[in-house]
């Protein structure tokens, strides 16, 4: 009788273990799959480049610091073509992005740079690998 | 006499504080300035896309895990043009990059993808803001 109870206990633990393991990994997958990742290519008026860079820097710092759903904003310019700016953007979800573009700091940035930007191309992308060292 | 000694002590502390503050911030600046950042645009043969993505993923994971100087490898493909791959690369320095391309995992990756890559454009970039949440 005690033997049966023990087998029952072990079976119960195994089921619990399997259920917990799978629900955890599904959670992690769901989290990563919901990320919204985009590359922005922006061409800037050469005469206003320094002002543009200052506005973008201020905006990126504010967004990542203040918004839980703005995970990464990597803004760079081409070494040989400084008016060509690229921003690599990672948001926790499409919803986080939609909320981002309604924040006061985003609206301030958009207003400030309105006449500095000559063109803007936005490309939605899908991750292959997002590898980075812990900060 | 005691008063003079106290003034001397305070002066000494102030000098030490200033020296330490400046040497620290110079160190941080030097560290950031030495980073080597690049964007790779890679066009892949459509028939070999899945094999290419697997090879790139394996390579990116190995490089960031094994090499102290490979800080970030963000590899993505365009949602609407899956054969267009972009890699956002941050190395601690040009030296770290030079050592990276001599590692066994890099050479294995290059050999594996040799006939999968249709074109490769490398652009050196300069940071405006590199904002990301702590991992």
Task: Write a structural description.
The structure is a homodimer of 135-residue chains. The first copy, chain A, has helices spanning 2-33, 49-66, 94-100, 104-113, and strands at 36-44, 70-78, 84-91, 117-132. With 135 residues, chain A is α+β, with helices and mostly antiparallel strands. Chain A has one domain: Alpha-Beta Plaits, CATH 3.30.70. In chain A, strands 2-3-1-4 form a four-stranded antiparallel β-sheet. In chain A, β2 and β3 form a beta hairpin. In chain A, α2 runs antiparallel to α4 (104-113). The radius of gyration of chain A is 23 Å and the shape is elongated. Chain A starts with a helix and ends with a strand. The model of chain A is unreliable at 24-31 (pLDDT under 50). The interface between A and B is large, with 38 and 38 residues. β2 of chain A pairs antiparallel with β4 of chain B.
In short:
In chain A, helix 2 packs antiparallel against helix 4.
What keyword list fits this structure?
homodimer, 135 residues, alpha+beta, Alpha-Beta Plaits, four-stranded antiparallel sheet, elongated
